């Protein structure tokens, strides 16, 4: 009888895959749990009230106007849930952005803002806040959003355009991104130091990143782009794996790296711009989420990508929860919480991975 | 599978790295490319598999210009193992080797893909490392994993950029032997860059010696590895002796070259035998 090579090993691999899928499932369930928990924090309503309201809204169940159930539904749906849902979407989008950027650049220190997207968004938003000048014809709050969105696209397009002439190696892209960031940041700084205190505070708060004050109207564009990007990244996640072994290896395995990298950067530009134009620059989630996921389930992007979506959503909605819990001592933006809580966890993971398993 | 390189030239800048390369390689054989550092060995194999595009001339794969073959189709024909591969990400050995299936497979890993991966790992004697982290392996294991990744690509031509670098002599011999056996038994052409002339002489069917961006000599190890060629290309004194049908290079330090060797020494006896023949 012919020897079957590695039958046990094939089974071991399939078992490992099952573990990865289980992890993703646990993350998704955890996100729903934290959504319900977050909705009940800082209100008189409980965990199950939030569940019931979401269920009623989905099923189209209505209550008589001004009845206690109507007020409950109105408050939770319109006040509590939008920032929570935006945290989920933004967390998912930034995390998958980090996963893609780290794989594309072959660099674990890359994050969604590596090509200078955040500096462009900052310039767009701060110019709209300080001078009233926007890159779009829309004024007011949506003027800031649209200006930040268009501003975010500029560095990404510049990086893509310039690397057409000098080759789009990861190092070149990162360096061009750094140069563009410095240039844009200098203009942001100039605008901020030449404006009044109120506008300075508004501009500064925008840069920190926050989901408070957001509504359902902020969700459709962001959700559409994040969902589209998530699906697209999932479909090319096997190609992202090749990029992790370096350009030469990826090319020798049949990947057209130049076009692939350009397309991914375009996708990332729209993804990240659609998020931070509404939330401001929320740092850290795009950097640490892929690492946390890889630490637990390994580096195969076919699993890391969906797991990052779920884990990113979980991390940011948890940060929003902590932000709400800390509300009695002041309004602490989610971006601050994210860095304050995320940094020690990240350090812990690094120390633990160096002691045993590899993370970098 | 047949590779024909005609009047090929390449340069990263205006200064040519390769010039006037004419080569025909094919058949089930292990071919070693030898030459000093910076002579263009890696550049040559990068031009063969389209990592670089030649500035002049053409590279033909079975009479088809490789520039007209898509990257993915070319990957089904030509595999490549780079000089060194490191990754900052925690990939298991199976995940790493599975990537080699990319030109043939879809998104999903099939049982056939896994079977091919484990057969290759078994062939290289590293099946037990399958679920280990790629980054935690020794240099020798690392190199074998990358060879496995190249092999599961099922190429007709396998290009290896110094596959025995950083390995101890036992592992160097093991890797070179595996490559020769693969070439002969699996019917593929293996082209290997090497700095170890004796390893190349022992295991290669043919040798290409490069000098200043050009092909200096091509032929069997006996035809190419001569003390005159070594002196010209590397600028060092040597004796090339015949040992069990293979040329064997013995380097002679400049300061010691006038030193009379004992007549019954190994080198003297082999040199006398070679001269007599």
What does this structure look like?
The complex is a heterodimer of chains A (360) and B (277). With 360 residues, chain A is mainly α. Chain A has a single domain, classed as ABC transporter involved in vitamin B12 uptake, BtuC. Chain A has 14 helices and no strands. In chain A, helix 4 runs parallel beside helix 11. Chain B has 277 residues and is of the alpha/beta class. Chain B has 2 domains: 166 residues, Rossmann fold (3-Layer(aba) Sandwich); 42 residues, no CATH class. In chain B, 34% of the residues lie in helices and 25% in strands. Chain B contains 10 helices and 12 strands. In chain B, the strands form 3 sheets. In chain B, strands 6-7-8-3-9-10 form a 6-stranded mixed β-sheet, sandwiched between helices. In chain B, strands 2-1-4-5 form a 4-stranded antiparallel β-sheet. In chain B, strands 11-12 form a two-stranded antiparallel sheet. In chain B, strand 11 and strand 12 form a beta hairpin. Chain B starts with a strand and ends with a helix. The chains are: A mainly alpha (360), B alpha/beta (277). At the A-B interface, helix 1, helix 9 and helix 10 of A face helix 2, strand 6, helix 3 and helix 4 of B.
């Amino acid at each position: 009888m012919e020897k079957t090579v590695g039958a046990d090993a094939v089974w071991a691999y399939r078992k490992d895959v099952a573990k990865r899928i289980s992890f993703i499932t646990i993350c998704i369930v955890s996100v729903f749990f934290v959504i319900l928990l977050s909705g009940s924090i800082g209100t008189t309503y409980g965990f199950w009230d939030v569940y019931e309201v979401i269920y009623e809204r989905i099923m189209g169940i209505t209550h008589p106007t001004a009845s206690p159930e109507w007020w409950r539904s109105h408050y939770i749906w319109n006040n509590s849930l939008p920032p929570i849902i935006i945290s989920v979407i933004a967390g998912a989008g930034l995390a998958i952005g980090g996963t893609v950027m780290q794989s594309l650049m072959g660099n674990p220190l890359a994050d969604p803002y590596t090509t200078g997207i955040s500096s462009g968004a900052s310039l767009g938003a701060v110019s709209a806040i300080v001078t009233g000048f926007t890159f779009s014809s829309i004024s007011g709050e949506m003027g800031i959003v649209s200006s930040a969105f268009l501003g975010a696209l500029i560095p990404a397009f510049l990086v893509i355009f310039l690397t057409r002439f000098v080759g789009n190696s990861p190092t070149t892209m990162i360096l061009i991104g750094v140069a563009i960031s410095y240039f844009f940041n200098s203009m942001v700084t100039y605008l901020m130091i030449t404006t009044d205190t109120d506008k300075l505070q508004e501009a500064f708060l925008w840069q920190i990143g926050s989901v408070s004050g957001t509504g359902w109207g902020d969700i459709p564009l962001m959700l559409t782009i994040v969902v589209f990007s998530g699906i697209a990244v999932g479909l090319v996640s096997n190609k992202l794996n090749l990029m992790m072994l370096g350009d030469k290896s990826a090319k020798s395995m049949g990947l057209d790296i130049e076009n692939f990298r350009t397309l991914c950067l375009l996708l990332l530009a729209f993804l990240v711009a659609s998020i931070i134009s509404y939330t401001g620059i929320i740092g850290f989630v795009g950097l640490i989420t892929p690492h946390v996921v890889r630490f637990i389930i390994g580096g195969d992007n076919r699993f890391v990508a969906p797991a990052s979506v779920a884990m990113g959503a979980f991390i940011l909605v948890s940060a929003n929860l902590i932000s709400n819990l800390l509300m009695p001592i002041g309004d602490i933006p989610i971006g601050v919480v994210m860095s304050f809580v995320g940094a020690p966890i990240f350090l812990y993971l690094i120390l633990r991975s160096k002691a045993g398993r590899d993370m970098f | 599978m047949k590779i024909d390189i005609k009047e090929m030239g390449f340069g990263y800048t205006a200064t040519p790295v390769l010039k006037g390369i004419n080569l025909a390689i094919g058949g089930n054989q292990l071919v070693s490319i030898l030459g000093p550092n910076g002579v263009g060995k890696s550049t040559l194999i990068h031009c063969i598999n389209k990592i670089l595009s030649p500035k002049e001339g053409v590279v033909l794969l079975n009479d088809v210009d490789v520039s007209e073959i898509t990257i993915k189709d070319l990957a089904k024909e030509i595999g490549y193992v780079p000089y060194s591969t490191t990754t900052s990400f925690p990939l298991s050995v199976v995940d790493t080797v599975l990537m080699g299936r990319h030109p043939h497979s879809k998104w999903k890993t099939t049982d056939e893909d896994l079977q091919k991966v484990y057969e290759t790992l078994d062939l290289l004697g590293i099946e037990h490392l399958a679920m280990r982290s790629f980054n935690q392996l020794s240099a020798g294991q690392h190199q074998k994993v990358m060879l496995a990744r190249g092999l599961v690509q099922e190429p007709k031509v396998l290009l290896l950029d110094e596959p025995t670098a950083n390995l101890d002599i036992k592992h160097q011999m093991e890797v070179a032997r595996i490559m020769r056996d693969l070439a002969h038994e699996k019917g593929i052409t293996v082209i290997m860059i090497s700095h170890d002339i004796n390893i190349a002489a022992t295991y290669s069917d043919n040798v290409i010696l490069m000098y200043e961006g050009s092909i200096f000599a091509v032929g069997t190890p006996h035809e190419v590895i001569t003390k005159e060629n070594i002196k010209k290309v590397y600028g060092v004194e040597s004796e090339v002796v015949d040992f069990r049908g293979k040329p064997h290079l013995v380097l002679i330090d400049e300061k010691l070259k006038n030193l009379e060797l004992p007549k019954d020494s190994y080198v003297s006896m082999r040199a006398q035998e070679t001269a007599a023949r």
